[in-house]
Amino acid sequence: SSMIVITSRPSAGVQQHTQPDCHVRIKGFSSKHVKEYVRQYFSIMGKPNLATKLISFIEENQDVADLLHTPFFLMSLCALSERDEDILTTGAKTPLYSNLLTCLGRKYCNREGVDMPTDGLPAEVADALLQFGKLALEAL
After folding, report:
1. Which pLDDT band, with edges at 50, 70 and 90, does 23 fall under?
2. 106 vs 55, more confident
3. Mean pLDDT for the stretch of residues 104-132
4. In which region does residue 73 sit, left (phi positive, over 0), alpha (psi from -120 to 50) or beta (all else)?
5. 56 near 22, Cβ under 8 Å?
6. Residue 87: CB atoms within 10 Å
7. SS3 sequence, 37-77?
8. How large is the average pLDDT for residues 61-65?
9. Helix-strand-coil percent breakdown of the chain, rounded to 5?
10. For residue 124, what pLDDT band results from cuts at 50, 70 and 90?
11. Three-class SS of residue 113?
12. Biggest CA-to-CA distance, the chain
């Protein structure tokens, strides 16, 4: 019998509950790749000045920089900073995650024709996210 464990948090106690025969680690982007991606993203969008601003922000905020070696987070931060340059005022992770969820929620609502409130997310989307968070917490 075989068991496959996939996690983005290898330090979350997975090793306590399993004895894997093999470990595979996907390392993501290097710092050089992050900068190249940011430059290309904003070049395509016709906003190269935002690339310079975002790269400076990344270099000054190591906690955020550590997240960006994962391509999804890097693309998300580029999209967020394109939509709202003020997102780059803090290096705190919680506002970035909150803004990412709001941005993704807005994209979903636009695609599905759901009316968006001026602040936050529609109640049904917020409730679904809370249920998802509860499920994740209980699974720890």
Report:
1. low
2. 55
3. 82
4. alpha
5. no
6. 19
7. HHHHHHHHCCCHHHHHHHHHHHHHCHHHHHHCCCHHHHHHH
8. 84
9. 65, 0, 35
10. confident
11. coil
12. 54
